[in-house]
Amino acid sequence: MQLTEGEIYHVYNRGNNKQPIFIRPWNYPYFIKGMERYLIPYCDLLAWCLMPNHFHFLVHANKNSIPIINDGSFERQRFSQAIKQLLSSYTKAVNKQENRTGSLFQQKTKAICVTANPGHDTTAFHYIHQNPVKAGLVKRLEDWEFSSYTDYLGSGKYKLCNVKLAHERLAINYHRFAEESYRVINFDVEE
Length: 191
What we know:
The protein is of the alpha+beta class. It has one domain (8-181): Transposase IS200-like (Alpha-Beta Plaits). 35% of the residues lie in helices and 18% in strands. It contains 6 helices and 6 strands; from the N terminus they run E-H-E-E-E-E-H-E-H-H-H-H. The chain has helices at residues 27-39, 78-98, 120-134, 149-153, 163-169, 177-181; strands at residues 8-14, 44-51, 54-60, 68-71, 74-77, 110-113. A 4-stranded antiparallel β-sheet has the order 2-3-1-6. A two-stranded antiparallel ribbon has the order 4-5. Helix 1 (27-39) runs antiparallel to helix 2. It is globular, with a radius of gyration of 16 Å. The two termini are 18 Å apart.
């Protein structure tokens, strides 16, 4: 995963063999604490959603995302190292909780630059928030606790997103945010 400063990326991964990654209700808040610890210092998070067997992030690569660090015998960008640390620490905790071993996530976390095509960043933003409704987990976007949707309504519990930067970078009508968010958007992402 190679990021360029100033670009916006749709970052996602899922459980090995599409298995659940959030097994117990308390796994969601635990993962979110990991996002705060490992991810937030190394990017501007614009949107996120945790689903039972996968996650989505919309990130803006900033100056903290791109420095190269040496991780043993590997060199990688700081953001890639942060993702690795987040998933590794979470996997260890779930493996201990479930008395299991092995990897929880697919090997490669994907990062697709969505600023390369006009409008894809905004489409990805809405797509991420629509996931729980499309999956039938809730009927209303604001009812899914584990996404950044409510941050943009002003009632978010976690407040991980750089909402100011999202206002500047994304073509979203914030006066009609809720209405725009409920529109059906077709966006192909390999899940």
